[in-house]
Amino acid sequence: MPPRPGRSPRARTRHPAPAPSRPRPQPLPLPTPTGCGLGRSTPVAGLCVAPPGLTMMLVAPVYARLSARHGPRASLVLGLLVIAVG
């Protein structure tokens, strides 16, 4: 779809805001004496951020089928309910 006159093509792209529940790997390997680090190793930091990504990979086909069968609103409502309950 071509951009409308007067708008740059970049204005159409939107980047999602970072999820507040997603673990951040940056402070994990920092040294503890700095006051902002947890002193974990880099592999441990990677293991800490792996579960959300693996969950998304496993659940994506289910939500794709749900969205194809019942429309995107059903998967959005179900996702919001899961977040509200969890």
Fold and architecture overview:
This protein has 86 residues and is an all-alpha fold. It contains 2 helices and no strands.
**Main sheet summary:** none
Distance between the amino and carboxyl termini? 38 Å
- Tell me the total number of β-strands: 0
N to C succession of SSEs: HH
Write the layout of secondary structure elements.
Layout: H1 42-70, H2 72-85
Helix pairs in contact: 1-2
Concise account of the structure shown:
The protein has helices at residues 42-70, 72-85. By secondary structure, the chain is mostly helical. The mean pLDDT is 76.
Features:
86 residues, 2 helices
